[in-house]
Amino acid sequence: METEFSANGRIIAVCTSKAKGTVKRDAGSGVLVEGFGLEGDAHGGFAHRQVSLIASEDIETMKAKLPGLVPGSFAENLTTEGVDLSSVAVGDRIAVGSCILEVSQIGKECHSECEISRRAGECIMPRKGIFCGVIKGGPIAAGDAVSIGRMTGKG
């Protein structure tokens, strides 16, 4: 089986936090560690949800209700632009620079109502967040290309 990549976009933010339950801050770059996640991030090593992604376009939509939202506000590790994350399925692969992620979960149940949900009446992470495992690690940075890959019957 081969993976065909398409739908090129880019990373606009690489976000980390030292503690769970806090907003992540854009570091601009980082290192994805195979089987772990983003180096230095509190959510690294968390089972199948090693790295989280959300589209900047979805953040922009939420800004109508909360103008102060920025990359990391939804505790995502990678904020993308120009790639349709809503089109991915569990098992799809996402290339980020030279790294490869595998989609392991779409959305998640919030453990408690988050601050964004309390203030805006909704949170997009349960519907729009993508969670992945790191298949191939390496350095990543804002500006890196993002492509969605799907397994084909070739090979």
What is the strand and helix layout of this fold?
Blueprint: E1 2-16, E2 25-26, E3 29-33, E4 37-38, E5 51-55, H1 56-62, E6 78-81, E7 93-96, E8 99-106, H2 115-120, H3 125-128, E9 130-136, E10 138-141, E11 145-152
Account of the protein in words:
The mean pLDDT is 85. The chain has a single domain (2-152), classed as M1 Pyruvate Kinase, Domain 3, CATH 2.40.33.20. Strand 7 and strand 8 form a beta hairpin. The chain has 3 helices and 11 strands; from the N terminus they run E-E-E-E-E-H-E-E-E-H-H-E-E-E. By secondary structure, it is mainly beta. Strands 1-6-5-9-8-7-11 form a 7-stranded mixed beta barrel.
Task: Give the CATH topology.
Answer: M1 Pyruvate Kinase, Domain 3
Q: Give the C-level CATH assignment.
A: Mainly Beta
Strand content: 35-45%
Main beta-sheet strand count, sense and barrel state:
7 strands, mixed, barrel
State the CATH architecture.
Beta Barrel
Order of helices and strands: EEEEEHEEEHHEEE
Write the CATH homologous superfamily: PK beta-barrel domain-like
Distance between the termini: 5 Å
Number of strands: 11
- How big is the Rg? 15 Å
- State mean pLDDT (0 to 100 scale): 85
